[in-house]
């Protein structure tokens, strides 16, 4: 099976940088994705890493180390609207299912 | 990006009745859709994978006779919660991947089901 662990809550100050970690276990790895979900809303895709290293998309960056079964999401220049839950997810190529981590609730404070 | 539309966004039903939730891919063909359930302050739990023209694949512990999935076309999958009970109250979300970008899953708006 697959499992992903994340810290349950993180609090950070507006304008700062925050890192959300994710460790996973899987028998077959294809890629690690990150999704954002605001309360009552649907998840929205943020990033995807299939290879080791850092992927940057605007204020968001995602890192992957396959040898360590570890990844993180880095949010820079935090804004109040970034307050949401963030999920790492194991995803497969093609139409393979997406398995979500435990989720991290980020609270951005003034 | 691709658009997935889910209806209804919320529904209240009486215990013992059935509820149907629709999930449509509006601008792409989805041969596979996924149904998730999310309880408050918890993660999304995959219930089943819906395959066009064939039987759905259910995750362990999910009752296939209670959660009926039909994927009759390339743009529509439905989830029917049969004989609903209060413990079925949850947030149900569908998602799909298109054929071009298979690394990103697109989600419907979700359906908040309350069984009274």
Tell me the total number of β-strands of chain B. 11
Radius of gyration of chain A: 13 Å
The helix-strand sequence of chain A is: EEEEEEEEEEE
Strand content of chain A: over 45%
End-to-end distance of chain B = 37 Å
- The number of helical runs of chain A is 0
> Approximately how much beta-strand content do the residues of chain B carry?
over 45%
Which range best describes the helical content of chain A: under 10%, 10-25%, 25-40%, 40-55%, 55-70% or over 70%?
under 10%
Which of globular, elongated, flat, extended, rod-shaped describes the shape of chain A?
A: globular
Q: Which spans of chain A of ≥5 residues are poorly predicted at pLDDT below 50?
A: none
Oligomer: heterodimer
Radius of gyration of chain B, Cα only, in angstroms? 13 Å
Q: What string gives the helices and strands of chain B in order?
A: EEEEEEEEEEE
Structural class of chain A: mainly beta
Topology record:
The complex is a heterodimer of chains A (110) and B (116).
Chain A: E1 3-5, E2 9-13, E3 18-25, E4 31-37, E5 44-49, E6 53-57, E7 60-65, E8 70-75, E9 84-91, E10 98-100, E11 104-109
Parallel strand pairs in A: 2-11
Antiparallel strand pairs in A: 1-3, 3-8, 4-5, 4-9, 6-7, 7-8, 9-10, 9-11
Chain B: E1 4-7, E2 10-13, E3 19-25, E4 32-38, E5 44-51, E6 57-58, E7 67-73, E8 76-81, E9 90-96, E10 106-107, E11 111-115
